[in-house]
Amino acid sequence: MEQDQQTQQVPPKKVDPAELALPESLPILPLHGFVFYPGMGFPLQVSSETSKQLIDDVLLGDRMMGLVPSRREQVADDDELGPDDLYTIGVVGYLHKLNKAPEGYYQILVSGTKKFAIDEYIDSKPYLRARVVEVPMEIVEDKKIEALLYNIRAQFQKLVSGTELPQELVATINSLTNPFYVAYLVSSQLNLKIEMEQEILEITALHDLLHQVARELNKRLETVEMSKQLQASMKKDMDERQREFFLRQQLQAIRKELGEGDEDKVEVKELQEKVAEKALTPQAREVVDKELARMERIPPSSPEYTVSRNYIDWILDLPWLDSTEDTLDLNKAEADLDQDHYGLKKIKQRIIEFLAVRKLKQDIHGPILCLVGPPGVGKTSLGQSIARTMNRKFVRIALGGVRDEAEIRGHRRTYIGALPGRVIVSLKRAGSNNPVFLLDEIDKLGSDFRGDPSSALLEVLDPEQNSTFTDHYLDIEFDLSRVMFIATANVLDTIPGPLRDRMEVVELSGYTQEEKVAIAERHLLPKQLEAHGLTADDLEISTTAIEALIASYTREAGVRNLERELAAICRGVAAEIARGHVGKNVVTPEKLYDFLGPQRFYPEIKARSWGPGLATGLAWTPVGGQILFIETSKMKGRGGLTLTGKLGEVMRESATAALTYIKSHARELGIDEDVFAEVDLHVHVPEGAIPKDGPSAGVAMVSSLVSLFLGRPVRQDVAMTGEITLRGDVLPVGGIGDKVLAALRAGIREVIVPVLNEKDVLEIPEDIRAGVIFHYPHTIQEVLAIAIEKDEAQG
Ligand SMILES: Nc1ncnc2c1ncn2[C@@H]1O[C@H](COP(=O)(O)OP(=O)(O)OP(=O)(O)O)[C@@H](O)[C@H]1O
């Protein structure tokens, strides 16, 4: 059954259907998707065979049927519906007219009269039939009902005038005297969900019914109101935009009339003036003049206008011909470097020599300085000092993670939002064409499908090419030959070969404890005091406290974390002063906890339970030297070897080589040859965070294994490094300076170094060397003689 048309009042017939008495039982006609209310009448379509039969029968009988909404949404035929699918309250429908349409369906005109409740179903075939009881609609008359009715009528009128509901509905509502009918008619116009419509039908008390309908009516009015406001605001938005557009058009027309030209002309004129004043290379001037002429022709509203304008701004902002004057006084340079940095004697010397060469041969390009060393040893700040002493501007670009050539050289202007590359951006920032230009972390340069940034850098650094460096965005040559490039790196190996060839490498290793203390006292602390608005009268950190700070809160080759911890103490003191603390804060080792929390590092050697099978090796990593423990252990087995601790390929091979050496030299070493077949060995290198590869742990592996088999410990106060061969030779390795510093940091003052590394030891500053005992073995036998503790029986 589908609702067919707008509601219609049924014209009075000869019989008044409302007067007819309710029979005991009624055939039940299911309704789909709507509720039929008493007092209403409208045409319905009936297409299901079961229901058509019902209509046929009803027409011959008393013309009455029960109209009950179905709870189910989709029904193919009404005979599918059972009692449970229908609501239990319905309305008696009186059949006025039947029209059999040629298409096969019935069109019937029905009006709703009484409300009934289904008592029980007494038949299901050919259609449902139920015993019914009338639900009375008792009319009460009081002030409240009157007021409610008045309110509903008024609100409904409002709703009709605010929506597209037919105006006649207002007259109909006003003419209805039965308040139930008023409530039902209104509720049928509110677009309610069927559940709500049925709920309203089921309300018996007139008072509650009117209340509910008034509530739903108000809700509907609110929604209508809100959607109206929304529409209005959208319209206003549109209107304003249109208005602005028209006003702008008019403004332009008026300007034209007055012969004033427009704003944009003024802009172009200003740019022309700026260009005239700016010192430019001939090529840059030519390009910028052309661009200005083009800009004059483009309408300012077009996006191209802005592109042009930005391009010209870039050209105007660059220091094409602006340079600062060098002061290259070597004595001053030495003093400046000393003032900014403690120690680093050799490095400073190299820098002075480098500057001296530059002074003598100003026009010829010397190599590019590349400072290589662990983090926090002052590479960046040395660059700054060089700039300061030469009276040059300083700029820095971080190359770590740069994978795209365009980052160096820019994007072509055809790209939307294109910009110059970092070289040009930095020069704009420097404001001079001869700054000291620090290329930070040149070893971390990447490359991928977007092009190889190192080839762009090569051009930047190549004295043959860099006088005509062309950024993709600018597309004008910029002379970089006066720029002084300095590069920094943690490791040399990952710098692309052609780049490395252009550079003069200066290696910086880490600092000793003593140097760190001096750097902290003379440089870092004063710097941090100033940065936190403090003076030496506010805070003093005793030397023992600084020593404890270095040992217990930092483990690094440089002083980066040390500086950070000092800053933390300064922050703490500043906060105390702000809270009203008066007088000087003296920080002793005991007070470190208050400022920095619990100790972060413990002495590495002391933390180990020492015994046979443990040896101290020395490793080199990009962040400085590290001590490395080689642990070995044996258990009953069949000669197997397990290696753990995330060892790299070369280090694994070195463990195997160590074992082979021991097996083949067992007799000389005093080890029972049969033992190897009876045990399984496990070699472990703890501390997963340290990258472990390379051959330099060879001597420590052999020492650890021999110590294990002999049952005599390796000396705890000795650290060692060196590659081994199967014949028992000890070969040289790299990173000696950093490794020695790592041993010192761990409190070890005796170091075994391959004899061929003696020259590297001599490079270590005298004062550091003096505190260490070096051994230079040629062979493994010599290593073992030094490293393994003497048997007590042998003395
Ligand atoms: N010898 C020194 N004397 C005085 N201050 C130093 C010395 N070495 C380092 N510093 C200070 O330590 C801090 C860290 O140094 P810097 O940033 O230059 O390290 P870096 O070697 O460039 O590290 P990275 O490789 O991580 O960039 C700076 O404040 C610097 O001034």
From TrEMBL:
Key words, A-Z: ATP-binding, Cytoplasm, Hydrolase, Nucleotide-binding, Protease, Serine protease, Stress response
Domain Lon proteolytic: 609-790
Induction data: By heat shock.
Keyword Protease: yes
Record GO cellular component, one term: cytoplasm
Family per record: Belongs to the peptidase S16 family.
Protein name, per record: Lon protease
Native source species: Desulfobulbus oligotrophicus
Gene: lon
